[in-house]
Amino acid sequence: MRWSQMHIPTLREDPADADAPSHRLLLRAGYIRQLMAGHYSLLPIAVLVRSRVVAIIREEMARIGSQEFILPAMHPAEIWQRTGRWEGMGQEMFRLRDRKGADIALGMTHEEIFTTLALELSSYKQLPQMWYQFQTKFRDEPRPKAGLMRTREFTMKDSYSFDLDASGLDTSFDKHHDAYVRIFQRLGIPAIPVEASSGSMGGSASTEFMCPSEAGEDFVVHCTSCGYAANVEKATSRLPVVTDAPGLQAPERFDTPGARTIADLAERYDAPGERQVKTLVYVVDGKLTLVLLRGDHALMEQKLNDALAARELRPAHPEEIREALGASPGSLGGVGVTDLPIIADEALRGRTDMFTGANTDDVHLRGVSVERDITVGRWADLREVAAGEECPTCAEPLQVQRAIEVGHIFKLGYKYAEALGANVLGPDGNRIPVIMGSYGIGVERAMAAIVEGHHDDKGIVWPLSVAPFAVAVVIAQPKDEQTVALGEQVYEQLRAAGVDVIVDDRNERPGVKFRDVELVGIPFRITVGKKALSEGAVEFTERATGETRAVACADLVEEVRKAITSHG
Amino acid sequence: MRWSQMHIPTLREDPADADAPSHRLLLRAGYIRQLMAGHYSLLPIAVLVRSRVVAIIREEMARIGSQEFILPAMHPAEIWQRTGRWEGMGQEMFRLRDRKGADIALGMTHEEIFTTLALELSSYKQLPQMWYQFQTKFRDEPRPKAGLMRTREFTMKDSYSFDLDASGLDTSFDKHHDAYVRIFQRLGIPAIPVEASSGSMGGSASTEFMCPSEAGEDFVVHCTSCGYAANVEKATSRLPVVTDAPGLQAPERFDTPGARTIADLAERYDAPGERQVKTLVYVVDGKLTLVLLRGDHALMEQKLNDALAARELRPAHPEEIREALGASPGSLGGVGVTDLPIIADEALRGRTDMFTGANTDDVHLRGVSVERDITVGRWADLREVAAGEECPTCAEPLQVQRAIEVGHIFKLGYKYAEALGANVLGPDGNRIPVIMGSYGIGVERAMAAIVEGHHDDKGIVWPLSVAPFAVAVVIAQPKDEQTVALGEQVYEQLRAAGVDVIVDDRNERPGVKFRDVELVGIPFRITVGKKALSEGAVEFTERATGETRAVACADLVEEVRKAITSHG
Asked: Which of A449, B121, B203, B384 counts the most CB atoms within 10 A of its CB?
């Protein structure tokens, strides 16, 4: 390729409103342009990178025997209604009506649609099947952000497995797990597999692949000692045992004028956070629900969501709370409440001599024994793990780190097969539902994650595996005929040798060209200038290290091959 | 690949409701499945064919220097509003609102969006640019039909050219023209370039690539003598000159009880069709309009649409007609009508002594001189050319043939650049708008067109260039160890030689396997059976001809290579 004939609109300045390095650099280096919030055009060099990412994923899918499909992006509402997700997906699903008034969903994921194809499987002998596609997904994200990191329209490689039984699913899941490990390794993404919430996907277990990064939107809890790692949405920790006094015979009301927070109560009434019961009120699928936690703990909403298998969940409004409990947030409690469901965090089990609100403004209770005095309908792990708490496995202190979710694999179980009727004849002649898994990688987000991990103050530093070009030949003096001739010769030699090479033949100063090659992030630069003409040697510069050395023209192809092999 | 491990759900019977051969065969051979009307899933072997079609198109785009992009499928309404196409596209455009209430279009084509990227071009020195993408288009077709032929969701390769002036556009247009000729040739589609209407695209000229086929929805008018070819939406013909009597001083009313059609009038009142003025009433962008044609001519709606640059156009309802003209269809005419726009076909120019309706039920006029008696506001070519009429170029009889539109290329002119402000600094330092072209190929429709031209009563007969596999190795006796071993060896040899090969290793009878290989349409079949074991020779069968010959195992790779080369 010739730089002069490619549209690579690099920008001199950092674009405004682009904080994440990948967002800033992909814009600045001429990879992407925003059409509207959450929707980006990929320019030619981005298409090259994307095609390399896709090729790597495709190879690894083929290696585990997965077959490539392409399914529609538009789905009839009816199929989503049968699994309950037409309602369940809420506002995140783009919906429209066609000219005949039929309700249509734009696919945010394809469990339902792939399952309709699995209806053609008739015998256990056809299992296992692993099916995947590269396809555009549409999600009406509330807050698209950070360039390609969180968009409303993106390419996903989504796979689906269909097995006869749980051990078959384990095998398909493990194959994908291992394929994902290889994929991220080849992409240069230091992803770590972590336990995760399955969210709206349902199913029994899921693993996220997390790339540690300050630009990430997720938090991973992990233990450097034993390797425990989980999304904070799912993570647990060990808590030191609290020894309570037995407390009172019954809770006792006391006035707490102006004390509205955990801290107020701790400070003024000798009630440390760990001795308080914090009472939150949520609306879960339309139903007011009390959520109890230790005073010094924070609620992890996803855990609440998962525990209650909620479709929709939000904090209650103050008016809703006052109407139900007769008090404002700050004086709420579960004692005596029998007409609302109460869910409590495991850390409150067995606790006595506790403080909590009395459902009267500026009044609290003391001497509360949680299990004696509160009608807890459900116990669950609801609290957010904090850095420094003890690892649930080895008791060493946990760390919490920002990360980008680059992949997510799910054991789905029977949810979709049962809802849509995907059965096969089993070995015993009876029909049994297939058991499913699903597995996803966001292609453009993977590109962003690579840039997050591979850049410096000069620009992007692509790993060779995904770079738009392996080598840029820079003609330093484009007005000098001999330099141009030699540059063109070097370019042709490398092309003939099968090297992905671009020649910077623009009529620009060397400094401009060097800056662009660095910004765009091409792994190797060959500079053809006066020295080449006089000494028969070109400059060979490695983008990652900045190291430059002279290479004799005669040895160049061989040296480039070596460099590529050693970086492969 | 192994047949036993690929999902190729062939059907024993022809599927119901699939008339076009491509629809029937792609379903039956396990290439596609319908999700809902106009939306198909591509199964694994279809993905292989599609990837080969895409690769051929991509190569030819690269050859003319076009650069690959990927643009969003979702567009803000605002950009379409600026070119007037938000309204102009009517019901064919899928529209939705996002969670914030913003209007969004699903891209049916990308002139607007590519033009927004061209806003970054600043100088004539950056021109020409040719940009393309492979991308999903969404169109709310009123009548999706014939499988992949007309869908609501499909992959389009759409290109856009940006030039400094009309001669630059001519060059870009010609490059695409030639690339399309090569593409269709390589795909095995006997496409012919024909003059076409530009429709909602606007612009000065367009050429369609038409594949003659009974399954087509378009009609091509062509002359086997001089090569004239045009879509019937655009085609013209020469008409024999009609010599009229001078007629009456003024039109004369006469009663025509029960005569409601051109034929009635011809039969009962000695008024042959060519002496009648047929009066149609249309609603054009909300405005009632009279459309006049010779009695024996049919209206070509697209020509009316193009002549009036209409956004929306439909025949008026009988009530609307009666309210405006006071009569029913059958007794309508333009004489004396001054409050409605009247557009007349060129064939009526200068005609005298004509018959037409009197705008009173069961009354007509005779002795009408069209230009004297009717206030024609606009003359245009509106009639549909019929087979047998004279070629406009050489006067030989024209033929009319059904065809599939497989490509369409447009000279767009300045419409989009001016509406969206795509200017560059010209050589003289003044800003001038760029001139554009756009060029499209429907990928899945091309697949269907290939099948329409390449099938027989046994199934599909893919051209080698796009076949999912070049060779199928059929193990005839899958229960015989030695046959299996030899079959596997042949398979491995061909794989090692870089041949796209699938081995049919299923535990099925040879007849089942042969039928499937034929139905799926794999160009070459190698049968490994008892003969191979005893004589060291396999059967080599060519799908297109059915010819079978014995090939010694030792020569097989070489023979396959030869066969592939001679078909390439």
From this structure: A449
